[in-house]
Amino acid sequence: MKLVKKLTTVFAFLFLASVLLDTATIQATSTDGNHYTYIYDCWGYDRESPDAYSVTRTITGSDFECGNFKEPSSLYVRGNDMYVADTGNNRIVLLRYENDKFHYIREIKKFENNGVEDSLKQPQDVFVTKEGDTYIADTGNSRIVHLNASGKVSKIITKPDDETVSSDDGFLPQKLVVDSANRIFTQVQNVNKGFMEFASDGSFTGYVGASEVTYNFFQYLWKMVATSEQRSKMELFVPTEYNNLCLDSEGFIYATIGVTDEGKAPSAAQPIRKLNAKGTDILIRNGYTDPYGDLRWTASGEMKGASKFVDVTCLDNDVYYALDNTRGRVFAYDFQGNMLYAFGGHGYKAGYFINPVALEDLGNTLVVLDSKLGSISQFTLTEFGTYINEGLAQYKIGNYEESASIWQKVLKLNGNYDQAYIGIGRAYLRQKSYKQAMDQFKLKLDSTNYSKAYKLYRKEWFEVHIGAILTVLAVIIVVGFIISWVKKARKEVERG
Fold this sequence. Notes:
Blueprint: H1 2-31, E1 37-40, E2 46-48, E3 53-60, E4 74-78, E5 81-86, E6 91-98, E7 101-108, E8 110-113, E9 116-119, E10 125-128, E11 134-138, E12 143-147, E13 153-157, E14 173-178, E15 184-188, E16 195-198, E17 204-208, H2 217-225, H3 228-233, E18 244-247, E19 253-256, H4 266-269, E20 272-275, E21 309-314, E22 320-324, E23 329-333, E24 339-344, E25 356-362, E26 365-370, E27 375-381, H5 383-396, H6 400-413, H7 418-430, H8 434-443, H9 447-495
Antiparallel strand pairs: 1-2, 1-24, 3-27, 4-5, 5-6, 6-7, 8-9, 10-11, 11-12, 12-13, 14-15, 15-16, 16-17, 18-19, 19-20, 21-22, 22-23, 23-24, 25-26, 26-27
Helix pairs in contact: 5-6, 5-7, 6-7, 7-8, 8-9
């Protein structure tokens, strides 16, 4: 009897050990790789996903003759040229991506200004036009430097002499873009009126995209009854500052706001915005949730709090990527505001970051700049990510049947990918197959698109069956009239 008990205990121990070993193996397999990719399902839970991007390489300045980067703060890509704002070394470094390799071309550190040698000081951003003109946010010198294609100074923009510009604050441009009309939009430190806009000649024209003032209702009431001394000690109700911007293929400005107010919901803050020429936010938010990064986070710990976006970049198919500095992740969204996937994290292994500050798209790759490590990580689209981008691109140009076919390929790689079902439903919707579209939307609880499909399906049903409906109504009316006439005639006969 004792022997049986011992054998039972041994077998139980071995079984438990094997289960734990299998679990550990599964966990190791699911997280082992260059980075961790996940999505959110229709219920708001995070799910593992095949990688949309895989890390290709990580480069540093020491890989080239320019030497190490020091606290770099920004990237800009024009064609195959990648410009690095190497802030700590007071320079702009140009690298060229050719034949799947990066090559050092030159650096911009000094230039001639009216016959006198001039130099950059802590530049934080750079933008290059199609014509080859270079605009530099020369933050340490409180100016914007415009160099022509030959590298000579075209103009220098300093603090504007305007009554709307505070005389107490310095002029510290940190990020900038230049549109097709050569208008300059710049994010300036401590300016909360929106982006400062300068005309092509460098003259100041005003502000664009001022954020709405937000405040706590009870604080507002307290301010109404507080003394002047108490009010002076209170926090001012001021708009939130932008922290970065980029231009899409149509010239719209995508902007990010770093959400740091723990009392404010990220969705209310709208940390990603798309601004038109009037500065109005026209970003479409038709997803399960608004695009604001992670849906859940902890209240304490090293990486507490909501996602804080520090940069954004756009593809030609209107997919945009936002870089989260809080947890070192890249979030991808489509043109409807649906989250496509997220990847990355904090760490020292390939594909992870310590202090990510900038990202850009370079061909079919993404490049992410880490200021702390002075490194640039390059990510290449996988088969899964390529199918997603192709499905969205085909839908945008009107190839709905091809789009649905590509989304079917996505489902073969990830049967739990909600956006594939929604993509197929949208394709059916455009093909006027409303019933099939309704089935796809219902499957993934997409009530917005389901309502659209149902409305169109109901309209189509009535148009098809209106003849039969009218015929039935006419028959009912005629039959009713006949019955009434027969009853009346019968009564008259009975009276006679």
